[in-house]
Amino acid sequence: MKKRGCFWIGMIFFFLLLFLVMVNIPFKKFGGNRVVIGEDTTVLTEPVRPDGGIDYLAAINQKQSQGVTLDNNVITLLFRLTPQDQFEVVDEKIAGSSRDQFAKALGFDTTPDVIELLDPYEVLRQEFYATHEDPLDQQDFDSRLGIERLEVTRPWASDKFPKWASILEKQAAALDLIVEAASRDRYFHPRVAEIRAGQGPMMMNVLLPVAQRVRLCARLLQFRAMNSLGNGDIDLAIRDTKAIRRLGWLQCQSDLLVEKLIAVTVFRMATECEQHLLGNRGMTTEQIADYRQFLREHRYIIDVAERIDQAERMMVLDQMQNMQLYPDKVFRWSGNFHNETQQTVLPIVIRSADMAEAMRVTNGWFDRFVEAASQPTMKESLHAVQQTEKELVQLEINIGDLRKTGWRMIQGSRSRGKVVGEVVA
């Protein structure tokens, strides 16, 4: 009975809040809310989009592309190995295909043709499936092929897995192109977003097709490096293994945490190769000394605080300004709210809230996490982050109290803005 009573009390406050918001609050015209630009709200003050919001994508692209050219950017070559199906199609009336957008952002005058890059695992799997329709046969083949894929991440001779060796040999030029890309000094992956009708590019729609392709590139080099080692070609094994590590090291230049996480996978592949390589008796003393120096110069870069302070903060602020500018659309675009009541109520609350105050509150929490991640040692940073996360959990509990939150929501637009900022945080 007590739980049922609390439920109905909560529902009464919810519908009271909805009534007060719908009846007593004057609304601005749809999409007409002015974004309050400032260092304490949007953080960046330029460039400004036509709708009055900050163009965070343009700002990040401008910062990341400084000093980058077609000749020193690793992504320029890896882009040529990324097929059209890895790019989502945008409204052609606005900007053409996103692959064309990406090529333009990289600095190409015309979009280069795609160079085919094949995963031996997928090639062999598709070939077998084309001639064997029995699900049991397919399942058995998948198990055997999975074991082979594990075996080729260790030293292996071409005569042991001739089909794998043949597929790698046929695309030697593409693999050499990856090695050439890894020798470059800069990593600039343009932030190209899917464009939706009626709004500008949004960070939550950003595409990372080439960044995702880096994993396949590293995996294929791992297969070839271990094949070279198994065939006794130490120099080629060293070359490909170094290229894998450099791909991960270059990707650490990115401003997004998701690309740093991809780099973790790439570094793991490099480490697996290095365990076999450095344990091989065929390496000379000079080769071992050279590789150890290479390892010291290409360690995984840990700069989480900067990533949180820059791209991750910008992504959230971009989402908040679009919530303010397009309240009736943004929740449907995000796909997070499928309930019709939520899609109706939330835009009303956003319209009536002081979104500048919401941004200030959210920025305050970002500042807390940046400070926590900036501690002198990893141990201190982890402790500080955990403490901040505990406070966020308590904040979530407080927001979940419908009576208290309902009371705050009817106290005025600034109070509603603080609640929105806390929910976003």
Order of helices and strands: HHHHHHHHEEHHHHHHHHHHH
* C-alpha termini separation: 34 Å
Write down the overall mean pLDDT: 83
Oligomer: single chain
Strand content: under 5%
Helix- and strand-based class?
mainly alpha
> Which regions have little confidence, pLDDT < 50, spanning 5+ residues?
1-13, 22-32, 91-95, 333-338
Q: How would you describe the shape? A: elongated
Q: Give me the number of helical elements.
A: 19
By DSSP, the count of extended strands is 2
Give the strand order of the largest sheet, numbering strands 1, 2, ... along the chain: 1-2
Q: Report the radius of gyration as a whole number of Å.
A: 26 Å
Structure overview:
This protein is mainly α. It is 65% helix and 1% strand. It has a two-stranded antiparallel sheet with strand order 1-2. The longest helix has 23 residues, at 2-24. 34% of the residues are buried.
